[in-house]
């Protein structure tokens, strides 16, 4: 995905025209929306296959076992927020760089940590912009199955959910498929006046609108 110069007022205007009941933008030219086909073409994510479902509840024992087995590390309490782990902690420990001599287990753990960053920072970010649900890690256990999940459908459902959420008057934060100039920021719509969106980017929305305008 290329760098996109953002017009915050334009993004704000779009969100103010989002209709949660129909999941469409109400524009002067009629109703438009982001479709599953748009997500597939723009992001390249698979839209067919197994649903991305998971149990987001973790007890300490399950969390410790899952993280130590797949990541080789148990995230300390200060980097956790409920059942979420800090994206910064993941970046600090999993920089996707493989060193000569790394064994297969080490390479796999780096892959798991990096993919978890992609999920929480780009594909399925929430409004926190800084954490990702650890439950997604359980979906990565078998890398042969990862590509069989319908990540595109989950991406679109998450985008719809946070557009519904963000269209409520008075709310500042927004989640959903995003892109920013610095990886790992996730959805960067934070600490802003009500209904003024920040420096993150709804790539799917912007490219959809660009297509409508052209």
Automatic annotation (TrEMBL):
Origin superkingdom: Eukaryota
InterPro entries, sorted: AminoTfrase-like_pln_mobile, MAIN-like
GO biological processes: meristem maintenance
Domain Aminotransferase-like plant mobile: 4-164
Pfam families according to UniProt: PMD (PF10536)
Membrane-crossing segments per the record: none
Listed name of the protein: Aminotransferase-like plant mobile domain-containing protein
UniProt organism field: Rhododendron griersonianum
